Amino acid sequence: MVDFSRRLEADEVGTIARFNACVVDIFNPRIEHHGGRTVRLAGDGALLEFPSAVEEIQCAIEYPSAFRSPIRPNKPVV
Predict the structure, then answer these.
(1) Exposed/middle/buried for residue 15 (C-beta within 10 Å: 0-12, 13-18, 19+)
(2) What is the pLDDT of residues 1-18, one digit of tens each?
């Protein structure tokens, strides 16, 4: 999430709610699709495990595009 710390200071409850929604709606499905699992979340960082480096790289390549708006593709959704 862009400016996570600044957003957290300005609106902790709203920022955490938006971040959690991203985890549930975008992050987890991508990871599961590639056979991965979340080991630990820490702030806006994550420790993930995948069955292979190929699956990890494919997930990493797809991940940023999940945050792009279909209407404004050059502007992140969050």
Answers:
(1) buried
(2) 677 888 888 998 988 888
